[in-house]
TrEMBL record:
An example molecular function term from Gene Ontology annotations: transaminase activity
Subunit and interaction comment: Homodimer.
Keywords: Aminotransferase, DNA-binding, Pyridoxal phosphate, Transferase
Source organism superkingdom: Bacteria
Cofactor(s), names only, from the UniProt record: pyridoxal 5'-phosphate
GO BP annotations, alphabetical order: alpha-amino acid metabolic process
Keyword DNA-binding: yes
Keyword Transferase tagged: yes
Protein name, as recorded: DNA-binding transcriptional MocR family regulator
Pfam families in UniProt: Aminotran_1_2
Residues annotated as domain Aminotransferase class I/classII large: 63-406
CDD domains: AAT_like
Gene3D superfamilies: Aspartate Aminotransferase, domain 1, Type I PLP-dependent aspartate aminotransferase-like (Major domain)
């Protein structure tokens, strides 16, 4: 009968994701980052992208690489396309120790674990050390991919201030003392001491020793991420933290910046007990790192002048760095400031007071230039007055045009500020999943 209880309409809650209630707690906060959305437009040819951290592999002798890969398949294909040990190919691990010797590290190949890029190495380190609610200390700002890993494992991130000489030891000591007084045990200090992403600065030599001493006194393990360490523009590479404290530093390295990111080969150098845990974690994650990629990198290192190639990369990136710094000095408003990197890929810009880089970003894209807003590099939503500019991929003339467009956008923002007052963006953040170009 119409209107009886059996015929009453059933009202159900509408969900876009039918599995919403099944997700683990760590998955429910995952959101697409502002950076991932940015790259959908930043890669258009009419847009000058000063946003991504993609290395310029056009500087590689691709004909030589192609020939080496062809020989690899013909001569060793049956092995190169099989499974490999979870710790990584022994020959490659031996070669990795030779690469690390360039930053002062004397390592045994048995302590190297090959990973799917240094991003996986960081993921594995965090997995074996951090429970939900554990505290990780990071520089302020810090690499967005690391923040994503720590958030995915439900860590509490505490930022420590930097300046033009890198992490400030006094602030680190004060932060660790305060956290201990609160009963919060810090599991890791995550740091990029050489040619920092996103700031571009490097930890000075005297501060490196002080940071190690502070972490030793507070019983904190150091995770040293060093993807840019061989890409300095002046003198010899910085001596790695790991070189002076093998027992308390886990060193992460990568071939993405010094060879090619598409092979996805990185590594972790760790004390013996930590190495064993990393191998077990690697087995559960991937069984083994990709064998063909390892053989490809090992073949490249054995048959090509990789040191000379890195020198060529340094010269190319230095030319691009110079083009960016000169353009910023010539074109940006007087109250804008920026860092002066001596290596790596990035410049960290501080905008005039009252200008919000995140709020300005869509208007910059409309003007056909893209950058990464500073808020992406903080776990707490700070950085609204900052932006990261990358000079690694565009040629110098394209960099100059990008800075010209960006300067015009900033000038218009200053005019709007004078008329309407400053605009502030929000701090609504989840667990961001950055695109690969951000590295």
């Amino acid at each position: 009968m119409e209107g009886s209880p059996d015929h009453r309409p059933v009202h159900r809650e509408t969900r876009f994701d039918a599995d919403f209630t099944r997700y683990a707690a760590r998955a429910k906060g995952m959101v697409a980052s502002e950076i991932r959305a940015l790259f959908s437009v930043a890669n258009r040819p009419e847009v000058v992208s000063l946003a991504g951290g993609s290395p310029n592999i056009s500087g590689l002798p691709l004909d030589v690489v192609g020939s080496l890969l062809n020989e690899l398949v013909v001569d060793h294909g049956a092995t190169a396309m099989q499974y490999s040990p979870a710790q990584g190919d022994p020959r490659l691990r031996e070669q990795i120790t030779e690469v690390m010797a360039e930053v002062g590290i004397d390592a045994n190949p048995d302590d190297v674990v090959v990973t799917v890029g240094s991003q996986q190495a960081l993921d594995l380190v965090t997995r074996i050390f951090c429970d939900p609610g554990d505290t990780v200390v990071c520089e302020a700002p810090s690499y967005v991919g690391a923040l994503g890993v720590f958030a995915a494992y439900q860590c509490d991130v505490v930022h420590v201030a930097m300046d033009d000489q890198g992490l400030v030891p006094e602030h680190l000591d004060n932060a660790l003392t305060s956290l201990a007084a609160q009963g919060r045990r810090v599991k890791l200090l995550y740091t990029i001491p050489s040619y920092h992403n996103p700031m571009g600065v490097s930890l000075s030599l005297d501060r490196r020793q002080r940071v190690l001493e502070i972490c030793h006194r507070h019983d904190v393990l150091v995770v040293e991420d060093d993807p840019y360490g061989l890409l300095g523009f002046e003198g010899e590479p910085y001596r790695a933290l790991r070189a002076d404290d093998p027992a308390r530093v886990v060193y992460l390295g990568s071939f993405s910046k010094t060879f090619a990111p598409g092979f996805r080969v990185g590594w972790a150098l760790a004390p013996h007990a930590i190495r064993d845990k990393l191998v077990l974690a690697q087995e559960s994650a991937t069984l083994c790192p990709p064998t063909f990629s390892q053989y490809a990198v090992a073949t490249y290192l054995a048959n090509h002048d990789w040191k000379g190639q890195i020198k060529s990369f340094r010269e190319m990136y230095r030319e691009r760095r110079d083009a960016m710094l000169e353009s910023l000095a010539d074109l940006m408003p007087a109250t804008t400031t920026w860092t002066t990197p001596r290596g790596g890929f990035f410049v960290w810009v501080t905008l005039p007071e009252g200008i919000d880089a995140k709020a300005m970003s869509p208007r910059a894209v409309t003007s056909r230039v893209a950058y990464v807003p500073g808020t992406a590099f903080y776990a707490d939503g700070f950085g609204s007055q900052n932006m990261r500019l990358s000079y690694c991929l565009p040629p110098p003339d394209r960099i100059r045009e990008g800075v010209r467009r960006l300067a015009a956008v900033v000038e218009r923002e200053l005019e709007l500020r004078e008329t309407f007052g400053p605009v502030r963006g929000g701090r609504d953040r989840g667990i961001e999943s950055p695109g690969p170009e951000v590295r």
